[in-house]
Amino acid sequence: MSKCDHKCVGMLVWRDDKLLLIERMKYPFGFAPPAGHVDEDKTFEAAAIRELREEVGLKSDNLELLTEGRKENKCRREGGDWHYWKIYKIEADGDVSASRDETKQFGWFSKDELKELAKRGKSYQAGEITDEEWVKNPGLELVWLEWLSKLEII
Predict the structure, then answer these.
(1) What is the DSSP string of 13-27?
(2) What would you measure as the largest C-alpha separation in the chain, in angstroms?
(3) Which of 11, 88, 102, 149 has a CA that sits 20 to 30 A from residue 55's CA?
(4) Is residue 40 part of a domain?
């Protein structure tokens, strides 16, 4: 198991007022924008470009930093119980080609659909949904409940 670097990027890709989300195949389960660790990249921006390509096959170097900060959120890496995030708005053309290793499915979600996924995430967070039920039918990944709320998207 690799050690957590505590640095993450998230990329918001919009088309026709819909946000690109993937359903994660690996922990942490849920629907989320493309995101990942900075790892060996020299900058958060380089990591964002790499993660976007790896997770959904899109290429872009047009990044706009929307927000940043520390969040208490677990990942599957050793010591990964918090991360310093930078969240970017990304402009990217082309067709989505989701990673077969990391993604169950992807889709473009309207704000109303995002709010429905957020409701399910809040129910899971409140303990109203079991871990087993969550893995089978997740909502919005918990850290993204925080980010999309902060950005006033949900």
Answers:
(1) EEETTEEEEEEESSS
(2) 41
(3) 149
(4) yes
User: Which CATH number is 65's domain given?
Assistant: 3.90.79.10
Show the tokens assigned to 103.
């993604």
Per-residue pLDDT tens for 57-102? 999 878 999 999 999 998 889 989 999 999 999 998 889 999 888 8
Question: Could you tell me the residue range of the domain that residue 66 belongs to?
Answer: 7-110
Please enumerate in sequence order all residues whose Cβ is within 8 A of that of 28, keeping only pairs 6 or more positions apart, or say none: 73, 74, 75, 76, 141, 142, 143
Residue 48 belongs to some domain of the structure: yes
The predicted-structure confidence for 29-65, as pLDDT tens digits, reads as follows 999 999 999 989 999 999 999 999 999 999 987 899 9
Helices (H) and strands (E) in the chain, counts: 4, 7
C-alpha separations of 2 from 18, 35, 77, 121 in Å: 34, 17, 6, 27
Q: Assess whether pLDDT exceeds 90 at residue 1.
A: no
Whose CA is closest to 109, among 7, 13, 11, 1? 13
DSSP state of 126: T
